[in-house]
Amino acid sequence: MQNPTIAVLMTCYNRKQKTLDSLDSLFSQDGGEDRSLSVYLVDDGSTDGTTTAVAAAYPQVNILQGDGSLFWNRGMHMAFAAALVGVASQNENRDYDYYLWLNDDTILYPAALAGLLHASDAVAAKGNPQAIIVGATCDPQTGVLTYGGLESQDRYRPLRFSLVAPGSEPQRCDTLNGNCVLIPKSVAGIVGNLDPAFTHYLGDLDYGLRTQKQGGSVWLAPGFCGTCSQNLRPRTWTETTENLPWYLQWQRVGQPKGLNLTQMTLPPVTEWKIFAQRYAGLLWPVYWLFPYLRLLLLPVVRIGSNLRSSQLKLD
User: Fold this and answer.
1) Hey, is 260 helix, strand or coil?
2) CA proximity to 263, closest of 141, 150, 101
3) pLDDT digits over 160-174, tens only?
4) I want to staple 82 with a disulfide (CB 3.0 to 4.6 A). Which of 77, 87, 162, 233 is the partner?
């Protein structure tokens, strides 16, 4: 596609320098003259001067204000909604060719956007016009894969997904992480916006799975598109039991960012229920409740572990 128009969607909160660095990598892309970028950035109530700094460095960015309650998914929903109705700085209606999700802590490589567009063209040429293209990111220090395309682990764990390592050709995936995602208008026209039923997590996974259900597809672009560190260090169940009182664990489950565990983040109960109902089939109540039941049993497990330790000492 010649000279495509791209709406870049971002949301941020109190990460001024990271947001500026991400924008710098975006506006420094190779071949920038061959495409048109309109950036929609939601500042979700930052108190570190993010809005002022971005407006001074990049006056062309459309900055939307949140009140601190949006978090990632609802912030991205606000940005997406603004782009879909064409709220550009010139108040012109725009019919964008693509929508690019970009995390404010993702630093794009210079050829990232060109690579995503090339992958989109290649996948479309093979008969997949309604295809989302995901860019994989790696840790800036170690080079280890951090975010990107996801595939289902097995049919007996339909809500568990693992990262797909990028190769030399586009690869089909089941769903995606939302750090760097190129969505053609053909997909946006069918799938629409992110679902605001999710606050922070799950909205990106839901979008990829909804795309598949509605006849589209998700593909991982070749190579890495940039760097992004993992935001949370996964904890084991043992660490959770020892380092965090049980009542605080349940408090965290009820918060937008949930409770971070070994292989997953335990999200708010109602949001996980929605996700399970949509994608876990007839046994969705089992897949919905099992992680929380495991958390409920942690005090019992801890008591049993202490009793065994005491018995060993007596022996």
Assistant:
1) strand
2) 150
3) 999 999 999 999 999
4) 87
